[in-house]
Design brief:
heterodimer; A: about 210 residues; Cytochrome Bc1 Complex, Chain C; 2 domains; 9 helices; B: alpha+beta; two-stranded antiparallel sheet; 3 helices; about 15% strand; elongated
């Protein structure tokens, strides 16, 4: 008799991503470098974006456009996005120059690239729903661009309701899921070693999470 | 807002142009700062505490 799907799922998960890999208590010696910090900095900025975004969504524009604290949370949301992109691009540079797709890490690289594109779409819709002259200018400039490639009728940048729902519901969910898969892939395959690292030595400071 | 900041925020951005390349001074400064942070992250040594593998392993097992 074949196993239940729950058993297959559980065994597959335990085989591919055991708890020692998912929550390790040590990292390879080569991770002790500032360039390895930028992935988690990006995640930290993303957390602030989600938290401040939830406050903005629950309190609404009548609050965040008028009260002092509302303006502060609105600014916090905006500036954490700026830091998110700075950290993510530096993370991207670091990973590109160390060819981070090495060692069966292609899916880690691909999910990171897709997350980058999804972040741009999410930030873009965020700029469009500021309901100020800046967002109006961006929408009407972008409208011509999207119309010229034939998607203006589906993705209507001047439709505030569509952009608002994409920004607060659809795109953060997509970005969150891709980011989760990206982080799980980092845990599964391990953090990529520098190109010239002697891997026989780099694992001596690590308690066995990458021994596959 | 007052002073130079008010003046800065209430005027159009200054743009640099080389042929078809055009970039605002603000964006250029941000990109250069990102390059500086990248280089600093690569070259500045990370503070480490030299724990041996056994010490780390024992610490993990105690928890």
């Amino acid at each position: 008799m074949s196993k239940m799907w729950t058993a297959r799922l559980r065994e597959g998960w335990q085989r591919n991503l055991p708890i020692e890999k998912l929550i390790p208590d040590a990292q390879p010696a080569y991770v002790a470098s500032w360039i390895y910090v930028f992935g988690v900095l990006t995640l930290a900025a993303f957390s602030v974006i989600i938290a401040s975004g939830l406050v903005l969504a629950f309190a609404g524009p009548a609050w965040y456009h008028t009260s002092s604290f509302g303006l502060f949370v609105n600014s916090l949301h905006f500036w954490s996005v700026q830091l998110f992109f700075v950290f993510m691009v530096i993370h991207l540079w670091g990973k590109f120059w160390m060819a981070a797709w090495r060692g069966r890490r292609m899916l880690t690289w691909v999910t990171g690239s897709v997350a980058f594109v999804a972040s741009i779409a999410t930030a873009f819709t965020g700029y469009l729903i500021q309901t100020n002259f800046d967002s109006q200018w961006i929408a009407f400039e972008a409208k011509d661009g999207f119309n010229s490639v034939g998607v203006g009728a589906v993705f209507t940048v001047t439709n505030l309701g569509q952009m608002l729902l994409l920004h607060v519901a659809f795109l953060p969910l997509i970005l969150g899921v891709i980011t989760l898969v990206h982080v799980l892939m980092v845990r599964k395959r391990g953090v990529v070693p520098p190109i010239d690292a002697d891997e026989s030595n780099t694992f001596e400071n690590f308690s066995g999470a990458l021994n596959d | 807002m007052s002073g130079w900041f008010s003046h800065f925020m209430n005027h159009p951005a200054t743009y640099l142009k080389w042929g078809w390349v055009q970039i605002s001074v603000t964006n250029l400064v941000v990109i250069l700062l990102m390059f500086a942070i990248f280089l600093a992250a690569v070259f500045i040594p990370f503070p480490t505490h030299n724990e041996s593998h056994d010490e780390i392993k024992n610490k993990g097992e105690k928890k």
